[in-house]
Amino acid sequence: MAVFKDKVIKIVKKIPKGETLSYGEVALLAGSPGAARAVGNILSKNFNPEIPCHRVVRSDGKPGGYNRGSEVKASKLRKEGALK
Questions:
Q1: 51 FRET partner, CA 20 to 30 A, in 3, 17, 21, 60?
Q2: Distance between CA 3 and CA 62 in Å, rounded?
Q3: DSSP character for 81?
Q4: CB-based contacts of 11: which residues, under 8 Å, 6+ apart?
Q5: How many domains does the chain have?
Q6: Which residues are catalytic?
Q7: Residue 64: left (phi > 0), alpha (psi -120 to 50), or beta?
Q8: What's the CA gap between 11 and 47, in Å, rounded?
Q9: What is the model's pLDDT at position 42?
């Protein structure tokens, strides 16, 4: 799991401001298609501001959950231009 977690964190760190990836896309890029829930679980425990986990969204484009609150996530995405 640690190897997968490290891959997820590395991928999420590279998501540019104003862009998003879905949980499924992150899982695919990390080499584990179908592990979207695992990505969400990993990111739910992240409190490091250098890892922009708010840029990972649901596959339908909706923000999804966030350990600091869904509205905080939506607000951050709006400020970055990634959510209207």
A1: 60
A2: 28
A3: T
A4: 21, 26, 29, 30
A5: 1
A6: 53
A7: left
A8: 16
A9: 97
